[in-house]
Specification:
Strand content of chain B: under 5%
Largest interface: A-B, 90 and 85 residues
Number of helices of chain A: 14
Number of helices of chain B: 12
Shape of chain A: flat
Number of strands of chain A: 2
Largest sheet of chain A: 2 strands, antiparallel
Oligomer: heterodimer
Radius of gyration of chain A: 28 Å
Strand content of chain A: under 5%
Largest sheet of chain B: none
Shape of chain B: globular
Structural class of chain B: mainly alpha
Structural class of chain A: mainly alpha
Helix content of chain A: over 70%
Distance between the termini of chain A: 41 Å
Order of helices and strands of chain A: HHHHEEHHHHHHHHHH
Strand order of the largest sheet of chain A: 1-2
Number of strands of chain B: 0
Chain lengths: ~325, ~300
Amino acid sequence: MRVSILSQPPPSSRIQRLRPKRLHDARRWKREWKERIIQALLFLAGSSSVAITLAIVGVLFYESLGFFRHVSIVEFLTETTWTPQFANPKYGILPLVGGTLVTTAVALSVALPIGTIVALYLSEFAHHSVRETVKPALELLSAVPTVVYGYFALGFIAPAMQHIIPGLPMFNMLSAGLVMGIMIIPYVSSLSEDAMRSVPMLLREGSHALGGNKVMTAINVVVPSALSGIGAAYILGISRAIGETMIVAVAAGMQPSLTLNPTQPAATITAFIVAVSLGDLPHGSIGYQSIFACGLVLFFMTLFFNLIGHFLRRRFHQAY
Amino acid sequence: MADVAQLIRYRKRQDLLFNIMGMVCTLVGLLTLALLLFDLAYEGLTRIDWQFLTSFPSRKAERAGILSAWVGSLCIMFVTMMSAVPLGVAAAVYLEEYAPKNRFTTLVEINIANLAGVPSIIYGLMALGLLVYGLGLSRSILVGGLTLGMLALPIVIVTTREALRSIPSTIREAAYAAGATKWQVVRYHLVPYSLGGIATGTIIAMSRAVGETAPLITIGALSFIGFLPPSPLQSSPPFVNFGWLGSPFTVMPIQMFNWVSRPTEDFHRNAAATGLVLMLFTLSMNAVAIYVRYRVRRKIHW
C-alpha cells in the first residue's frame, strides 16, 4: 500500500497552489536560520564545560607561576617542611602530600572492603526488595554535608577512639580518615554493584551448573567479569578521598607535619588551602599564591585518577 | 556419599556466612548514619527554637542564631539553580542530540567526567582567581552562587543526558516524520518527556550545593554576617531589586564550621543545631528526589 502511494508522486500543480513558491522559500529560509542559531547556542552551552576546565587550569597555572618565581620547583617538591608563616619560610609540599596520602589510605581501608562486600551482597545475595530500599538509603551517606561529618569525627569518633587508643590527640588523621571512609562507601558500592549486575546471567548459570555456590560464583565469576567496573569505582573513591576537604579541616588538625603515623594530627593539601583562606591574605602575596600551587598539585592528582577511572568505565561499558 | 553431603553442607554454610557478612557491612553504613543523626539531635535539638532561627550570630553562644545563614543558603541555592540548570540542560541536549561523533565531542565527554571528579575546593580557587580578582567582583551572593553553579553543572548534564537517552528513538522518528525540525523535536517532545529526570538531577545537585563549604570559604565568604541581603521585591517600580546579588553572605555550613572550630561547649551545641537544620534540608531534598524518580518510573511506559 505504502509503496503504491510513494510510487505515484502527487501532481505538482496542486502543491503549487497550496504553497506559493516565494512564501515557501521565505519560510524555509527563516526556519533554517532559526535552527542554525539554536544549534550554535546549544554548541556554546556544550562547550561551557571545556571553558570551565580551561579557566581552572589557566587560573591555577597563572597564580602558581608567581609562586614558582619565589620558590624553585625542586624546593617545592623535595623540602620536608611547610612553614610559610616563619621568618625563614619553607615551602615543601611533602608534609601536605603526606597528610593527604595518610587520610586517604585510612579512608580507603574502610571504604574499599566494606563497599565491595556491600556491592556483592546487594547484587548477588540480597532480595530484590532489600536492594531497592537499602541502595537509596546508603546513597544518603554521600549526601550528608561534609562539614557535618567533620563535626561527627571531632565530636563523637575522636573521643570514642581516645578510649580505645590511650593518649590519642583530639585532632588526628585516624578519626578523620575513618569517617571519610564511611562517606565514600556509597561511591564504591553503587558503581561496583552496577558493574556486577550487568554481568550476564549466563555466566552465573554456568558456574551454578558446575556446582558452584553463590560465594564461589560471586568471587570466581562475577568479580573477575566486572573487574574494570569495580576498578572504576575504586578510582572514583580514591579521587573523592584525595579531594575531601571539610572532614580533614575540622578533625585532622591544620598544622602541616611530615608524619605517616595516622594517630598524629597533620594538615592535608585541602585543609591547608582552607586554613589560608580563613585568614585574609593580601592578593598577590606569596602566601596567597601558595594555595594555588597546592591546588595545582591537587588538581593533577585527581585528574590522573579521574582519567584512569573514565577509561576503565568505558572499557567496561564496551565489554557487555 | 558422606563426603558429598558434607561438602554441600559446607558450601551452604559458606553462603550463609557471606550473607551475614554482607548484612553486617551494609548495617555499618546505615548505623553510622543513624548514629550521626542521633549525635546531632542529642547535642543540638534542645538548642533549636524560634529565637535560634531568627537571630543573627553573636559573641554569646546562647544569643546566637542562624538567620543570616539560612537566608544566605537559600539565596545561594537560587543563583546556583538559575545558572546551572539552563546551561546544563542545553549542554546535555547538544551532546545527546546534536553533537557529531568527532574528536571534540569525545573531548567534551572526557572533560565532563573529569569535572565531576574535580575536588570542590578547586572550583573555589578558580572563582577566587577569576571572578574575585580577575573580574573584580566582590565576594557576593552572585559569585558564591556562580561558583556552586559550576560545581553543579556536571551533575545536571549527566542526569539530563541519562533522561534523554532513555527516550526511545521511535518518539524522535515519529516527530520527524510529522515534519518537525530538530529544535521542535527537542522543544516539544524530548525536553518535556525528560522533565522528571531533569528535576531529579536538579534536586540532587542542589542538595549537594547546600552542603558545600570549602569553595565558599576559599572565595572568602564571611562567617559573621549581622544583616540580611536587601529584599528582592520593593514597593516602588520596577518592583524587583537585584541588590541582593551583590550582598555579602554566609551560609549554614560555614556558620557551622565557624562554631565547630571554637573551643567552648556552648558553641558546639550551636554547631550541632545548625547541622541538624542542614541535615533536614539535604535529607528532605533527597527524599523528594527519590519520590520524583519513583513517580516518573511508574508513570512512563514507552
